[in-house]
Amino acid sequence: MVRAEGLPADSVISALADPTGAFRVVVPEAPAYLVSVEREGYFELTNRKIRADERDVTLVLSPVREVFQTLDVTDTPSPVNPDQTSREEHLTGTEINNVPYPNSHSLRNSLHIMPQTIQDQTGGLHFAGGAENQTLYTLNGFDVSDPVTGRLTTRVPVDGVQSVELTTGRYSPEYGKGSSGVLAIRTDSGSDALRYTATNFFPSVNTQSGWHLGDWTPRFGVSGPIVKGRAWFADGLDFQYANAYVNGLPSGQNNRNGLAGSNTLHTQVNLTPSNILFGDLLVNFDNESNVGLGVLDTVPTTVDTHTREYFWSLKDQIYLHSGILLELGLAQNRFSTRTIPQGTAPYVITPEGRSGNYFVNSTQDSQRTQVLGNAYLPSFRLAGSHQIKVGVDLDRLDYDGDFQRTSYERIGLAGTVLSRTFFVGSGQFTRPDAQISSYVMDDWRLRENLQLQFGVRQDWDELVKSVVFSPRISVSWSPFASRDTRVSGGFAITYDSVPLALFARPLDQRPVTYNYAGDGSQLGLPVMTIFEVPYGNLKQPRYNNWTATVDRRFKHGFNARLDYLYRDGVNGFTYTGLPFAPFSPVISEYLLTNSRTDRYRSVQVSVRKTFSGQYEWFTCYIHSSATSNAVLDVSADQVFRVLDNYGPLPWDTPNRILSWAYLPLPFKSWAVSFLLDGRSGFPYSIQDERGNIVGDVNSQRYPFNFELNLYLEKTFAFRGYRFAIRGGVNNLTNTLNPTAVNSVVGSPDYLHYYGSEGRHIQFRLRFFGRG
């Protein structure tokens, strides 16, 4: 926005930059002008004075990040952006560091403070009602989803995160391989100013299960110039020594520990004013002991895990004189997971819990190599302005597995053996895949207040051997001259990616089960379970998404949103049990089919209030429903038959209220922060002593889950350096919030809940460098 100096404030001339950064504006003759610039994710640049005789003017926007030198900064732009057609939720690096969610060192844990994100009891993330493998995860534009499971396993230091953006329902055809949406993680970029932070460089104190030293999660961040004005870097480093305690187990047998770490390095080099090179390097490691420890799972049943991930990428952005912006990228990430049981004794499943040693000993290695290319073509005018973007994405995936299993047995209510399961086959296999995608899209500005985006995406997968097309259209309209209201909506067809684990299941070991009567006699012949994939006869899972949003900006920094999302999925992958062959009663066969259907709907009302000094308050209510006809997934490690597999998904939460804030106090340099998260309890199924489902799938629910965390923070200077110390209480109301239940009919502890963390105190100390 530009206005001549001395003219009234309402005599403003606005201009929009295209994706290449170019814009044109005609202004009245004046000796000087006042220029204001805003972009989401950056602080506003307000009333920058420019003399008329200045030839070259550089306007620098600072990214939204924690402010170390002062708490009084300019507000960020309003989220009511008339030019935004997609359905998005944002977290800035500042919000990630300020909101007091549990385990605040973990980016993964921070994501559930976004309304459309649910984190289940195992830590799994579910965006807009989908499974974790139904979301595309990107790091600085590259796919970092685990090729085997499709989940987000990449660990990124929170101090190095600039923003996290979740797009669901409707989004650009540039993105695919995830029907639930896209989670885009962007790391910090360096600047000419050297910045550094350190957090939790002293071990924390934890009051859970008594006073003791808790987790130690030191984090460090440093960014600055490599060559001032030309090359910059930003590096984030974190470590975690985990020392977790489980309530309800005897002392000395109630804790698990581990050592993990991550380093993310992002660099930017301006080779020329029109050629920018970006590079990323990420290294993860995680060594955990007693994984799976719980009230119903004692130490001998747990496993030790060792995981590694290595990721690197290069991206080159070139602006050509013809007006084309070209982006070329190459990336590769490698994953390695080792799972080791505590011994080789048979694993025993009883109505009162598990004993013995877990039965799976495995090594898994996977890799993704990705090549991408995007191009913004020169804009042109035809019944408005058009900006065309095209691109391609080529992926090569590899998966090597080695599974060696022992056996497990199931004990009934009377204490007798009901079944024993052994495994046959080598368990060693290789499963490669290749994926080719392309897209074309048009951002069409019909009028200043009306934006239309439409396009189509093409995806091909080697395992499914079919080409699919994803047409998408979305619109954004500002009906009033004030631009304080935005109405947006759209329709999109999206497709899921193909997790390699699903197609590798027939190559894995096969379970053989012996069933027994109450007197110990064998019931019939042993049954072998096999899995088959009908290659060439499958389709890629397809989802239809309908969305509508109304955003409204009010006075005094208040912003409100009403949001609706409906997603209907067909042709989903699921293994379906076939009837026993009359001539072969010893074979139980499961065939991979496209018989899965999913449905998700949600209505969301939210209000956000922003303040100067990076303070803000957010609250929302979401009503939703997530159902499927394939709730339970059959695998070699969990074999069962269920007559009706329709019901709510395990992460279904019909009602949720979420509120968080970081607010100033009347006392200088003091702030208060809180997180309130109340939701319906997750559903679960009732089982009999043989593990069969009794009644409908997920017919019961955990109690209402309520979490309230309250913290105070004091910023202070010591010998010219700036610090912040924070202390507070997690689960202030000491609500039960169980994570496990005994669901076996007839058990003495039937419907008894376990896993409450209770109320506990935590502290955090941060160092921001020179004040």
Describe this protein's structure:
The chain has 771 residues and is mainly beta. It has two domains: 1-61, no CATH class; 88-770, TonB-dependent receptor, beta-barrel domain (Maltoporin, Chain A). Helices cover 2% and strands 54% of the residues. It has three helices and 49 strands. It has a 22-stranded antiparallel barrel. The chain is globular and about 100 Å long.
Short description:
By secondary structure, this protein is mainly beta. The chain has two domains: 1-61, no CATH class; 88-770, TonB-dependent receptor, beta-barrel domain (Maltoporin, Chain A).
**Mean pLDDT rating:** 87
Count of discrete alpha- or pi-helical segments spanning 4 or more residues: 3
The CATH fourth-level homologous superfamily of the largest domain: TonB-dependent receptor, beta-barrel domain
Strand content: over 45%
CATH architecture of the largest domain: Beta Barrel
N-to-C CA distance: 33 Å
The coarse overall form would be globular
> Which value, in Å, is the CA radius of gyration?
28 Å
Number of strands: 49
